[in-house]
Write a structure and sequence with these properties.
The complex is a heterodimer. Chain A is mostly helical. Chain A has 14 helices and no strands. The longest helix of chain B is centred in the last third of the chain and has 39 residues. Chain B has one domain: MetI-like (MetI-like fold). Chain B is globular and about 75 Å long. Chain B: It holds the Pfam family BPD_transp_1.
Chain lengths: 281, 301
């Protein structure tokens, strides 16, 4: 039996609504691209939806890349995102595995501790984190942000991966143990490769969150050379009130968006499954 | 099977090595700062020197007498309510339309609708600032198509209404995430229920009210609480990028006020106290929402 709307008029109306919202999502992005190729005269003389005049100002991108040091910010964001995702994953996967497979004194409590911590607003930790990193001489360093971000994604990783490890068949481990594999051998050679889909899901969600993060970056980085992309975008926008270099600002936005869009297009399914698994319960 | 002494010891070592480093790390960079914030909130402290004056609950007393704190609290709840209504209505509509209406290309729409959720809130804020921009912005240009004369409204400049302007970008950016959650929940509802309903002649609206809604209510409750928490904890970013809390503190939220008091005006103790207020309000609201939404499930079934 085929389910769904049968009234053709209703179907058309709902379809139109879906199309309108697609436009509402895509248009601002298309607009960003068009505006990144304009100069100021075009901004002031024409309607915002006017197409950019030929020749297209691709130079806005290289201008932002060179003059505004976006090459450096891009590298900062890349290193910090990769580093904290890797560290966060390593720490959460090890704990999640033990919590999923071994029962020991306090294991239930430990799991609850991580889950409950997700209820605590991260802004609360902001002020002490600043002074903690200051006293460790980690303000304005890649390493400092990597530590904080890795810690901020830990509980989410533990939560999703405990669920994932529990879903794997126990027989595989049991036979590994019978074959004489050590605890570590079983984890690294059997369980870790098997849990790759879960690890990838968590890693991607973390990559998106960390790449886009702004508040912690703003507080823990005050040396302009060490900014991440979102932090620089925030600063740039404030500066643009005086410089009015709109085209380059839109180019800067695109430089920040494109990497996450690529990740999204490649890993859509993983992201959806991670969200479904990780919804705060 | 009894494990021998060495085997037991090995097992313990393994468990310890896989839990203690993570726990230690987490305690240093997340738990310790949270506890330290509670501690700082009891001091008058500029952050510039080691000198801290213990003043007990004075920061909290000052906080409750500070009109900007109340303004911020009101704005936070304005955004919470606005986002819950806007996001839940649209996300539910899209989730139902893309699963139960039998549209082709529903996968395509789903992918598109999620895009704002992968973009940094900073970028979204800047983008919407340009939509609202009085000179080169999209909104004014669009309105002037109808008025036949140039429109030059400063959208982020009315003191009484500017907070409203923060809702569209927040809702726009939030829908995809909750739509995905609801789609997953709706797909768990067995088709046979809908088939039986169709045979009885129930239309889509009846099916939604009597099958979908009651069966995905748990997920909706989770979504509503999640919107509340992420708003109280994170509305700071969109506010900071779009209005910096202005004009005249009318768009201040607790997060932005915390940042301003601590990192701009160097009242770190007061800032920490605002952080505690955020924690307390989000805990109280979570409990309240749990109660409120729980009752409704009972009434419905």
């Amino acid at each position: 039996m085929k389910l769904g709307l049968r009234n053709p008029a209703a179907k058309t109306i709902f379809y139109a609504i879906l199309l309108v919202w697609s436009l509402a999502v895509l248009y601002p992005l298309a607009w960003t691209l068009l505006d990144a190729l304009k100069n100021n005269a075009q901004f002031l003389a024409n309607a915002p939806w006017a197409l950019p005049k030929l020749p297209l100002l691709w130079s806005n991108f290289s201008y932002v890349w060179d003059k505004y040091n976006f090459d450096a910010y891009f590298v900062n964001s890349l290193v910090i995102t990769a580093g904290s995702t890797a560290l966060g994953l390593l720490l959460s996967a090890s704990t999640a595995y033990v919590l999923a497979r071994y029962s020991f004194k306090g294991s239930g409590l430990l799991y609850l501790f991580y889950i409950a911590s997700m209820m605590v607003p991260f802004v609360l930790a902001l002020i002490p984190l600043f002074f903690l990193l200051n006293s460790l001489h980690l303000i304005n360093t890649w390493f400092g942000l990597i530590l904080v971000y890795a810690s901020s994604v830990l509980a989410f990783g533990v939560f999703v991966l405990v669920g994932f490890f529990k879903s794997l068949p126990k027989e595989l481990e049991e036979s590994a143990v019978i074959d004489g594999a050590s605890y570590y051998g079983t984890f690294f050679r059997i369980m870790l490769p098997l849990s790759q889909p879960g690890l990838v899901t968590v890693a991607i969600i973390n990559v998106l969150n960390i790449w886009n993060e702004y508040v912690v970056g703003t507080v823990l980085i005050n040396d302009p050379k060490q900014y991440t992309l979102p932090v620089e975008i925030g600063v740039l926008q404030a500066e643009m009130q005086y410089r009015t270099e709109w085209g380059p600002l839109f180019a800067a936005l695109l430089i920040t968006i494109i990497p996450v869009l690529v990740v999204y297009i490649l890993f859509q399914r993983k992201i959806a499954s991670g969200i479904t698994a990780g919804a705060v319960k | 099977m009894k494990t021998s002494g060495t085997a037991k010891w090995q097992r313990g070592l393994f468990i310890a090595s896989f839990t203690i480093p993570t726990l230690a790390f987490f305690c240093v960079f997340t738990i310790y700062p949270v506890i330290k914030a509670l501690y700082y909130s009891l001091f008058d402290w500029s952050g510039m020197s080691d000198h801290m004056d213990f003043i007990g609950l004075q920061n909290f007393k000052d906080m409750l007498r500070d009109p900007i704190v109340w303004q911020a609290l009101g704005n936070d709840y304005f955004l919470v309510v606005g986002k819950i209504v806007g996001i839940m209505l649209l996300a539910t509509f899209f989730a139902v339309a893309l699963t139960r209406f039998g549209f082709r290309m529903s996968g395509f729409f789903r992918s598109i609708y999620f895009i704002p959720n992968v973009i940094s809130v900073v970028v979204i804020g800047v983008l919407w600032n340009f939509i609202y921009n009085p000179q080169i912005g999209f909104l004014n240009a669009f309105l002037s198509l109808f008025t036949k004369e140039p429109v030059a409204i400063t959208w982020l400049g009315f003191t009484s209404h500017t907070i409203w302007m923060l809702l569209p970008p927040s809702v726009w950016a939030g829908i995809g995430f909750y739509m995905i959650l609801l789609i997953a929940a709706i797909q768990n509802v067995p088709d046979s229920l809908y088939e039986a309903a169709e045979l009885e002649g129930a239309n889509q609206w009846h099916q939604f009210c009597h099958i979908t809604l009651p069966l995905v209510w748990e997920q909706m409750k989770v979504s509503i609480i999640n919107i509340m928490m992420t708003t109280l904890n994170g509305s700071f970013v969109i506010v900071w990028i779009m209005t910096e809390g202005g004009p005249d503190n009318t768009t201040q939220v607790m997060g932005s006020y915390l940042y301003q008091m601590a990192f701009r005006q160097y009242h770190f103790g007061f800032g920490a106290a605002i952080g505690v207020l955020i924690l307390v309000t989000s805990l109280i609201t979570t409990v309240a929402l749990q109660r409120l939404l729980h009752r409704e499930t009972i009434e419905m079934s």
